[in-house]
Design a protein that fits this description.
about 150 residues; single chain; about 0% strand; mainly alpha
């Protein structure tokens, strides 16, 4: 018997619960970032599997959920593959990370939305100047590795 896949509302609820109490670099609830990335994917024409992956894109990397949870989750294999592709490995070089994203169907759109929100001037403006500069450079390097333009 095949398990009924999680709806987008259920994926959102799982992601919000998993990241409960976490904040971003500006001290905002982390779920705000997840919602912005999911909405960015939707606005860029992403499909439900990409939107589900957007909600979960940082869950494993941030230790909010485990790889075992992802493997067993009632999600489409493509959504799982996108989440896996977007999960940085310890000590991984940026180029290796970018290649995995480029090699995973559907992952680039989710990462583009993630980078666009991370690099949003309004979000960066509240950070200390040194942090803002470091992150701006980091996001620009990743955009270049992924072949994305600088407009977001």
């Amino acid at each position: 018997m095949t398990e009924t896949p999680l709806t987008l509302a259920e994926v959102e609820a799982v992601a919000r619960a998993a990241h409960e109490g976490q904040t971003d670099k500006a001290g905002r609830p982390y779920a705000e970032h997840l919602a912005a990335v999911a909405e960015g994917v939707r606005a860029r024409g992403g499909d439900p599997e990409q939107i589900a992956a957007a909600w979960l894109h940082d869950a494993i990397e941030d230790d909010a959920l485990t790889r075992e949870w992802l493997a067993a989750a009632a999600l489409a294999p493509r959504a799982k593959a996108i989440v896996d592709a977007l999960t940085k490995r310890p000590g991984e070089e940026p180029g290796e990370y970018a290649r995995r994203i480029l090699d995973t169907p559907g992952a680039l759109l989710v990462k583009a939305s993630d980078l666009a929100h991370n690099a949003d001037p309004g979000r960066l403006a509240v950070l200390p100047e040194a942090t803002r500069g470091r992150l701006t450079e980091k996001y620009a390097r990743m955009r270049a590795l992924l072949g994305l333009d600088l407009r977001g």
